[in-house]
Structure formats: C-alpha cells, structure tokens
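Re: the 143-residue chain
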Amino acid sequence: MDISDEGQPLEPVWLEINNNVCGGLKGAPSASLVAQRFIGAGWSSRPASWESYEVETSWCRIEVEATDTRTLLNGVVDPDRFADLAALLTRFGLPFSIELYDDDGELLQEIQAGTPSAPIRETAPRLPGRLLARLGLVTAARR
C-alpha cells in the first residue's frame, strides 16, 4: 500500500464542489505505482479501496483506479490549477487525457499528452550521390 500523509490536505473550498476532473493514463502499470509518483511529487495518498488510491494536495484530490487497459482518474481540482495537474502527469511520462467540467457538467477543457512520436534519428539520413550531383552538392573529390 502506498500511504503518505505528508502532503497538504485539500483546501475546504474544494470539498464543497462535485467532481470536476476525470481522465486516464495509458500504460500505467498499477494504481499503486501511480499513487507512488504522486507521493514523490509531495502529495498525500491513502487507499480508497482494495486496488485504488486517493491522492491529494491543497488544490486537487483525485481517485486513481486501475483497469485492464488504463488507470482512471476522477475527482476535484481547482480549475485555475488544471494545467498544473496536466504538467505533473506529463512528468510521469505516460500518455494521458484529462477533462475539466463546470458545475453543470459541461466540458470546459481537455488536455491530452504523451502520444508516442516517431523516434528521433541520431544522424541525418544520407542522400544518394546521384541526387547530390543533381543538386550540385557533390565535391570534385567525391565524384
């Protein structure tokens, strides 16, 4: 179990609103490991069930629950700190998607990040000699 009470408790103003953030992490190995990453960032964590955790700081409290294909996130966040939550999830290095909702359940903002990209080549590809000659880039020594 990943338990830590060293983080800041959620500010009381956020206790009065309904859940306004939800999303998920792809490729997360377990809810426990995700909770551990939040603890490493200074958040507190406690078990919410046998296989889920509640993590919190002064401006956000979310439940972390693993499924077969992804780890789900839902809870409450200070809307002004929504981008901070996304930045933290980005540092975890896993693809994610989170959504922010208003009091009426209307989607306000969505952030997706961590989509795998093509690997960066360490060396530039070599152009064929005939193409270089046409471009006039082949030196006399190379011809």
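Residues 12-116 form a domain with the TATA-Binding Protein fold (CATH 3.30.310).
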